[in-house]
Structure formats: C-alpha cells, structure tokens
Design a protein that fits this description.
- The chain has two domains: 172 residues, no CATH class; 295 residues, no CATH class.
- The relative contact order is 0.09.
- The chain is elongated, with a radius of gyration of 28 Å.
- By secondary structure, it is an alpha/beta fold.
- The protein is 54% helix and 7% strand.
- The protein has a seven-stranded parallel β-sheet, with helices on both faces.
Length: 558
Amino acid sequence: MARRCWYWLRLDLGGLSLAAVFFGLSLTPSLVPRTWTFQALVSGITITIGYALGVILAAVLRMAWVPVGRRWNLPRKGVLAIWWGGGIVAVGAITGYLLASAGWQTELRDLFAMASPGPAHYLQVVALSFGGLLVFIGLWRVLRWGARRLSSVMSRRVPPRLALGVASLLVGAVFGFALNGVLVPSVLGAVNDAFGTLNREGHAARPAPESTLRSGGTDSLVNWSEMGREGRALTGGGPTVADLRDFVSRTDPSADLDQVQEPIRVYAGLGGTQDMRTRARQVVAELERTGAFDREVLVVATATGKGWIDPVAIESLEYMHRGDTAFATMQYSYVPSAISFLVDITEAQRAGTLLFEAVEARWRQLDEQDRPKLIAYGESLGALGSAAAFDDLEDVRRRTDGALWVGAPAATELIADWKAARQPGSAMIQPIVDDGRTVRFWNRHGPAGDPINGPWPHPRVIVLQHPSDPVVWWSTDLLLSEPEWMREPSGDDVLPTFAWHPFVTFWQVAADMAGSGNVPYGYAHRYGDEQIQSWSAITAPNEWSDQWTDELAELVVP
C-alpha cells in the first residue's frame, strides 16, 4: 500500500531539493518567538512554494538539455544514486537548520524574556510541514487525474492537445469556484456567526452598570443587551471613584479629593443597529446625555475588529485626569482584527471616519474656551481606522488637540505617508517628520534619546511602534522585495540575524502577526506602559510627574 501511494505521488527530485532549501530558510530568525504550530504553518507554506518552483525549474532545465522528441532516460542505479545522494544532503541540511533554528529561537526568546521550547517543538514542525506538502501534492495529483480523465472523453471529438487544455481549464475553474465561491464564503459565514454568538453571549451575566455616566446603564440610550461582549466589558468595568481617589491621595496628598469624578464611557454596539452612521449619531447622543462635552478630555477611539479597546489605554487616562474624562467608541465588526484586516479594512476606516466626524461636528458647536480637549486614539486595526479620518498632518493639527496611534498596520495611509516623507537620515522605526513639531514616532527599543519629552508645542501626535511588531511592518511587498526598514539598523528587540528572503519573509511576518499578542508587554504588538508615557506627553495635567507615571504603570498594566 505504501509503495503504491509513493508511486502515485511520484515526488519530483527538483521540487524536493528546492523544498528542502525553502524549509531551511523558513527556520531563519523572524520578529517574534513562535509556537510549533505557527512555525509549521510558515514552513509548510514555504516548502510548498519551494516544491512548486523546483518542479518548474527542473522541467525548464530538462527541456533545455534534452533534445525535442527524446526522453531523459537514466540507468536505474543512476537514479537511485541521485535520490540517495540528494536525500542524504537534504536530511543533513534540514538537521543543520533545525539546530541553528534552536539557537536562534533561544536567543530570540531570551530577548523577549520567554522560555525556550523543547526538542518536541522541532520534530512537530518537521512532521506537520512535510505532511502539508504531501497533502498539496496529493490534491494536485487528483486535479491532474480529473483533467486527464475529462480530456480522454473530449479527445473523441476534438484534437488531444486542445482537449487537454480545455479539460485543464474546466477542472481549474471548478476547483476555483468551489474554493472561492463555496468554501471561503461558507467558512467566513461560519466564522462570522460564531463570533456573532460570542459577541452576544460574552459577559452576558455581568450586571448592567447603575451609573448614568455609562452606556447601557441608568437612563442610557443604548440597551445593555445590544452592546455586545466588548461593549459590556468596557462600560461595565474600569476604576471607581474610590479607586481614583486612592491613587490621587497616594501620589498627591495635597490634592482636593472632592474634584475626583466618575469617568464617562460611551459605547454603541452592533446589536442596536447595523447602520454605521446611525451608531455614530447614537454615540454623540450618549455624549450629550452624560455631559461628556463638559469634561477636560474627550477621546474618540476606533476599536479593533471585534470592538475591543485596550483597558490600559482607557484606565491610565482616567487615573491621570482624576476621572475628568470621556471615552467614546463604537463597534463595526464581530470578528477579530486579524480576520477583519484580511477580509475588509474599509469597515474600520469608515467607522473611524464617521465616528470622529460626528463627534467633531458637535464639539465645534461649543465655545472654544470651554470645550474639552479632543483626542483621537486607536490601536492596531483601530489605529488604521482612526487615522483614516484625516487627510494629512495639517488636517490632524486643525481638527484635534492630539492623537495616539498604537501599533498601526503598514496599510495605514496617513502614517505610511509620514514615514515616506521622513527627514533624511532618520530610520523607519523612529522617523522624524516635520522636525517633530507635531507628530513623533516613539518606542523604547529604537535609537537613543527620548523624543516625546522636552519642549513640544501642542497639539501633539504620537505613533507608537515597536521594531519587533509584525503588524506594523507586514505588507505584500515582502513577497518579492526587501523593504527599506530591513536595510536599516534594527531596534534592540530584533535579532541582528533577521534577514529578508523572497516569499519566506512574507509568510514569516504573516505568522508573526498571529503570535504578536502572546509576548510580554514592551515587545511586538503589546505596548503596555508605553501608552501611559505617551498620554503623559500628549495631554497630562500640568502637575503630573514621571514618578506618577511609573506608579500608574504598576497599577494598570497586568
């Protein structure tokens, strides 16, 4: 049975040779330490590409070397010698790369303060990677068998070569339709339904807040049951007035505790209405009802795909301003950012634009001396959506009192334009834009110096991005060209051995995105207390001190 399967697969030596090379490249250092499942996914996709390219290259070479009409016949012993020799070289190369990968992974995990994986990690990677290759080859054989069977029927009426060409096109079209027209929509539909159910049921047991200053609470225009999982978590949680007073009394004993207020949190979920413009108006109505336009700071935030906002960002700002804040956002999807990003980023862009424009329109009707500071905020896909509300740097200056965008994807057009127009000599990981008058890029792993402290006119915009954050750097350009950021000196959270390889780096960084949230704060896509330091630069009260920033980080960062 095994012999028949082996004969049916008829593995190509050229394909396997290049697959082994690509497998080794897939184990080279990347941005984020990986679990064996993500490493196997990267390696499996990479060696499949390598095998396909190897088959094509071998076919071209055979056509070039063997005269037309002749077959390439080698003695059986010669064939066996080639296979055995190639196999020994491939196994040796794979073993060498696995050993080197173990060293790289250990070094990277030490950098991230994470434990190293055991030997089983690498055995599982090899098994699943090459198992995936065999599945791909098997699928290809099935499709080719179907095309040949159909061709044999058609050749009774049309020339054989034409029959084979038409049959191949028909089989390919049927497979493409089944994949894109049936399988993918069905999977996406099932995923959307599953996350929709999770959105409705998550935190369902949490009681609605009794406060009038929270969406879903007393007198709210938003029904608690319609807010969804993340909306209920946001408006049902956070520091109480007692929590805020305790922090204020510890950091500033002379402060008047009677000035501490309950923070305002406004949220409109998908359960209320599917129309995004209506949800934006609903948020404005909630801001009016709660008195948010009388607060010191009003943050308009664009959520991630499933409606999540980082609690560290919200709570730190509330503690910093002793509760004299209002935080507003709305939901635009059920599914996580990773899926939303791949399927349709325009929903995030539209949500960020509609929400900010709706709040801004009401804000501009207020007296300029009495209205709150208007701040734009977003993290990850939320940063992409929030930044979409603005045309250029001057537009941000004119319409806000500041902005904080955290871990923005490479597809964020406004930020990509700033990077492209950066001051010559400044690096992509911390570019200098417009001499730093308004916008400043920052991360603790970049070039020496602290660009967010010191003299700096308002409004202030901070773009937080780690050199090791794959969400910031991933793009389709990685497939065939080395990006500029990889040609520059890297930050201290990136291994100096991280290098670009065609096809390979694209899948490496894509897989890194999936694992970028499973690392300690301060690395990859987890920003933690860096958001607190950013808030202190953008909108901290005059009496705020660096010591309080450190104490606040200990309080709100898990």
